[in-house]
Amino acid sequence: MCRSLHNEEGIISMKNEKKDKVVILGAGLTGLTAAHFLENPSSGGKAIKPFILEKQDIAGGLCRTEEKEGFSFDHTGHLLHFKKKDSIWKKFIEGELRIDLKKHSRAASIHIMNTLVPYPFQYHLAYLPKDEKEKCVRDYLKVYKTGAPAGASFRQWAEHSFGRRMASLFFLPYNQKLWNFNLNKMSTDWMGRFVPGPDAGKILRGAEKKDPSQSAGYNASFYYPRSGGIGQLPAALAKGKNIVFNASIKQIDFTAKKIFFEGGNMAYDRLISTIPLPELLGYLKGAPQNAAAKKLKWTGVYNMNIAVKKNFSKLGHWIYFPHGKIPFYRIGFLSNFSALPDGFSTIYIESSYRSERKKTSGASVMKFFNIKSDEIIVRKDIDIPYAYVIYDMAREKTLAGIQDFLSRCGIISTGRFGGWKYSTMEEAMQDGFDAASSSV
Is-contact 312 263, C-beta < 8 A? Predict the structure, then answer.
């Protein structure tokens, strides 16, 4: 068995004492990365060639890039955020996959009170009307010394960290719109480096004067392929892989270690699953954890993409929309980090849903941007049934029981949706490496 993953210098070799038949469910970023390191002797393995079962007719999962009439569209914004400047995954993408990445400094804003406030909201209060700014500062000063109590819900955290006015202007309406879930029942376990916390100095400086340079957060800078779309990553990883496309799984007999899918079946010694956890549990014949699967919660995203004959280069990379009058929660400008000919823009619009898909109205987008119908050259709609895992108060306990059961069955369930978590592409690739390491 392999136990080492990586150290400060980079990836450590994986020891492999025997060759097992490894099957991977899902040809997304995690599954393809796992396959790469199982196959690649330079990583220390013995060139195990796993089979990958993919239900779509193309590899990539949510990291795909769709082409339509000469324009490229990702499955919403997929940007690379590296934890360290010398990230081994940045070196891997640029060196081994030979993808030319360009670094961008985030230019994001929030649409509030018919104006654009730079992100993060809490550090740019001077952009608000004077009376609103004063309310935000006054409410913040009431709570800044105490902060949120231990075990607080997301709503409690927002109100006790920033004060009620800041919470009501941005943190609560935006997250309600994104998650479509009761924020009183949502934990803060997902936030980590994803949500910039309160910094009294920055908040007060940002209230005193407009300073767009005040920045924070894991995505203050990001990387993206210099040309083409983010789909270059899975395309490079998929080369030469044993991928069975259009593999519609019917059942997995985890006792006999056999997968039944439309058109055939496949035995395995070790199984790595990167598909959404509720779907995996639904396939497991007689699994006692099927009831637990019903406790898992998530949101889907309806992603409308358009190419327009209009220049939106001055609007930055993306805009957040916290309030309910506008149906979408975020709009991004792919053309502002992936070059297009002058005078053209590609825009992605995101609306979340839970039980019933919310199709974005083209009219609402056209109205906001003052776009005429003849200026829209291409429209490409993408439905993403699994987009964000909801961290309710029961998630941690439920997930622990499920993962314990899967571990006893010899199944590794990993990645953003296999591990049932909120994570980045860098973490998805690390999950793939870790799964490969544990499988040899």
Answer: no
pLDDT band at 7 (very low <50, low <70, confident <90, very high): very low
Which residue, among 339, 89, 99, 118, has the nearest Cα to 232 in the 3D structure?
Answer: 99
How many other CB atoms are found less than 10 A from the CB of residue 342?
A: 7
* Residues 26 and 418 sit within 8 Å (Cβ to Cβ): yes
The token duo for 92 is 């891997």
Which of 44-58, 312-326, 327-341 has the lowest average pLDDT? 44-58
Query: Taking a C-beta distance cutoff of 8 angstroms, is the pair 278, 295 a contact?
Result: no
Report the run of H or E that residue 88 belongs to, with start and end.
Answer: helix 88-91
Q: How far apart are CA 425 and CA 415, in angstroms?
A: 9
Asked if the model's pLDDT at residue 319 lies above 70, the reply is yes
Q: How many angstroms separate the CA atoms of 284 and 264, rounded?
A: 17
What class is the 108-218 domain? mainly alpha
Q: Which CATH class is domain 6-99+227-290+395-438?
A: alpha beta
Q: Which residue type, as a one-letter code, is found at position 119?
A: Y
Domain boundaries, the chain: 6-99+227-290+395-438, 108-218, 298-389
Residue 141 makes CB contacts below 8 A (sequence gap 6+) with 163
User: In the block, which residue shows the tokens 């949510």?
Assistant: 62
